[in-house]
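Hi everyone, sorry if this is the wrong subforum. Our group has a chain we'd like a structural model of before ordering constructs, and none of us has done structure prediction before. Sequence below.
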Amino acid sequence: MSNLPTLIADLALILLCAGVMTLLFKKLKQPLVLGYVVAGFLASPHMPFTPSVMDTANIKTWADIGVIFLLFALGLEFSFKKIVKVGGAAVIAACTVIFCMILLGTVVGMSFGWQRMDCIFLGGMIAMSSTTIIYKAFDDLGIRKKQFTGLVLSILILEDILAIVLMVMLSTMAVSNNFEGTEMLESIGKLLFFLILWFVVGIYLIPEFLKRCRKLMSEETLLIVSLALCFGMVVIAANTGFSAAFGAFIMGSILAETIEAESIDRLVKPVKDLFGAIFFVSVGMMVDPAMIGEYALPIFVITLAVILGQAFFGTFGVVLAGKPLKTAMQCGFSLTQIGEFAFIIASLGVSLHVTSNFLYPIVVAVSVITTFLTPYMIRLAEPASDYVDRHLPKSWRRFLNRYTSGSQTVNQESLWKKLLFAMARIVVVYSIVSISVIALSFRFVVPFFREQLSQFWGSLLSAAFIILLIAPFLRAIMVKKNHSIEFMTLWNDHRTNRAPLVATIILRVVVAVLFVMFTIAGLFKASIGLVIGIAILAVVLMVGSRRLKKQSILIERKFFQNLRSRDMRAVYMGEKKPEYAGRLLSRDLHLADFEIPGESLWAGKTLLDLNLGNKYGVHVASILRGKRRINIPGGSVRLFPMDKIQVIGTDQQLSLFGEEMSRGSSFDTDVFERSEMTLKQFMIDADSAFLGKTLRESGIRDKFHCLIAGVERGEEILMAPDVNAPFEEGDVLWVVGEKEDVYRLVGQKN
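Answer:
Right subforum, don't worry. Here is the predicted structure as tokens:
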């Protein structure tokens, strides 16, 4: 033992405690996260009755790696497209809950006279509900299919991304120790800039890289490459002033859009589970029982603040989003706990040395208590909503009914709003990419050219190089959406729309001109008039260039193709319904999946034979056969057993179709008895109908559906008789077939 490194001995103790506790907590049907925390408490120096970890500094390093893996795995489950799909209700509810809970936590901390940074970090810790614990509670209670759970999970998705933003803001505040509005706006602006840049560049480059290397990718190489990308982004994020966890989350969310996402998630899971366990054990190691006893009152008050605050503000946020009171209370009561992000934010405060020692154990204690209470709070939601509904004044009830019903109908986007939002998105994204290209070029390319050539020629070549690089993006800023449906509709709709539309074009041209001017002015000392003239000329050439137009379209098409590749694969494999399926609902039509049973009477028949359109009024849109997809199949296409077919029709038509398809697929004892096979032997005698005939002439296979397994001729046994040799008297034929056919064959006489 003396020769064993301390780190290995400590790791052995941690994993031993974690293993025992996870088994115990699994038996008690409690979240494993709490088991890890208790294991850490047992392995900590604060526990005198058990062996203790000797080198906490090394364990802290492992715990930091655990946070990176946790956030990387969270990013793999997260998708930027999910934010678009969660809807306004989840956005309003999540923002309301987080803002109000941060304020509540800050007020509670200030009421105990704690330092300002402790109060702010406490607010951040209690603002985030635990995704893992809520998922598990919904599964344990068997309510994952209920309507309100979808909204809760959407809120949690947004809380996860907002938690990352909150961590970046808290880090900025802790480092600068400055609470000025300009400082905060600057940090948010920097965050958004790098978030968009990394996401856009990542989605453009990484899926393409993985696609080209797909033939070389075994499970081992895919794991190594994905972890290399993760830690590469961690280093980049750290060097640009962000936390390592933020970089891991960004790379996870980029890889989440690739076809390999599920494989990476599966491969990374064991590594994440190991290091994640070490992180949560390290959380438990920081819990001092004496400190918990000393701060029993704050623990009680904060626990009460989490339960009542999340329940009230969650309910208020969902009602504000236009949902009924019962749904709102079910959502609010489900959010009444804190978990993983509370620990991560707490460890962030400790690592930055800006929070007091007592805060960490308090938050862990609050997390343990609120986690145990979560299932009871979810069960309490329905009776509580019934009680509130019964005792709510009639005027309030009428107001809530009017508000929720009114918010459902006001959902029509104006053309102007849609057009301006699209233009703003294009300008922001391509401007960020252009700024990055210019900044990197000034940092690396310009000095290189100036070293190789003279100052003037180096600057001239650099200017041409930079302008050529950003030209596709500047052209997109100026031209995109100028011929869109929204633009043309507004242009043709009324003359008063034309001036504002022209103004949008002019403003975007000015943005492009400014980029070119900045590049030229940074490289040459020239008059402002000359710089403007050159910039305008360059912009005119960009707009008129057909090659640049084609390049710009290809860049954008490649980006969206990479962004949608995972969804496209899921649709192709039948794991997800195509986009058009959602639009059929307005016409009382929808898309449903059916699988052709192995014993179906339809198997082997063509669509023309089945005539499904005329008989049932349905249309077969696609057939999925293994990894092959047949879209809009023709009449000559046959259906095979286990084919998955996607059918369009109304509820009534699809119901009738499903019944007819399965008819004849059920077990039929008569068919079973008739289909029994038997082996029989009979002799060719003088009266036999087959005497003197060859096997081919006898029609034994074609007419009687039987097969000759062998022929005995004297002492000779012919296993494969000659089809052209005639049967002789005394031949013994061994015949295989269905009973009825065999007896019919044997009874044949001249």
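For your construct planning: Residues 407-413 have pLDDT under 50 and may be disordered. The radius of gyration is 36 Å.
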